Amino acid sequence: MSDSTEEQGTPVLEARNVSRYFDGRDQAGRRVKIRAVQDATLRLYPRRIMALVGESGSGKTTLARLLAMFYPTSEGDILLNGRVMKPSRKDKRDYYSDVQLIFQDPFSSLNSLKPIRHILGRVLTIHRKGTKKEAATKTVDLLERVNLIPGGRFVDRYPGELSGGQRQRVAIARALAVEPKVLLADEPTSMLDASIRLDVLNLLSELRTEHDVAILYITHDIASARYVADDVQVMYAGELVEGGPTESVIGTPKHPYTQLLIKSTADPSRFKQAGQRTMSGDADTSEPPDPGHLPSGCRFNPRCPKAMDQCRTEAPPVVQLTRDHWARCWLYDGHVPEQRTTSPSPRRTQG
Ligand code: SF4
Fold this sequence. Notes:
The chain is of the alpha/beta class. The chain has 10 helices and 12 strands. The chain has one domain: Rossmann fold (3-Layer(aba) Sandwich), CATH 3.40.50.300. It has an 8-stranded mixed sheet with strand order 6-7-8-3-9-10-12-11, with helices on both faces. Strands 2-1-4-5 form a 4-stranded antiparallel sheet. Strand 1 (13-25) and strand 2 (31-44) form a beta hairpin.
């Protein structure tokens, strides 16, 4: 897959043809292989935000956890600054000084028994970002970088004394304490009030430009992805199905799943309606497929209003639609992208 940023040099963080399988059991108790993520490739670049969007259960959190080295890949590699990461203690230590995570729940991600001064000071000390004395000044500075101003007013407070939005800002300040090159933000606004969400999104946007950070923003919310992200990757049933610049993917979506995802933002019943049009037998097509029993051919075919016979038997190719916009779909097979002179031919894979 080609992307709009490949001309910017080496990605700071890359998932290269990454898959993750789990052993599980289906509803009848039979052993099955759960394909949580399959053949996913994405690249994060400094000063850019990439949104990873999809319904819950699409595999985006699993992919984020693979990127975060929470567990090893079944296939494929995670590369940091072009170097393949191994699950060794040394590689993990190097990794976490460059990559930090922001979790969905600001209420449980901070130690409620310690004041902010301790929470941030501990990270600064562990990562050797200055002496204890310097940590006090840096703590105030970090708080002000996330717009908790004046920082001195917050250092002696406990997480329980802060609002949800303020806690998420402290969680972001804690991530920034190690001066990371990458932030992996897993639904960082989903537990916040609507009025605060925009503030946190604006903060992510500022961090990207002011601190040269690459950000992966994981969300099920297309509108927020459009607001904050430079690039978008769409995930369905463990596969990336469409990707490219945000305005191209969300403005002119090509994959039928992306189209339904966007329409469902305005009308959540669209998924069910689309499924009913193509429903065969008693299959419940209003829900994503069971990852232990994925449909043959295109994984989206039972729900797809444009499914063709071929879609039910053969996995679709990845087709380069324009220089930087691609989709995994039979509808575009044979499409010839606009010519370019500097990048390699698009990769075509079977899912
Ligand atoms: Fe729909 Fe076929 Fe494209 Fe899958 S490959 S999204 S079933 S048209």
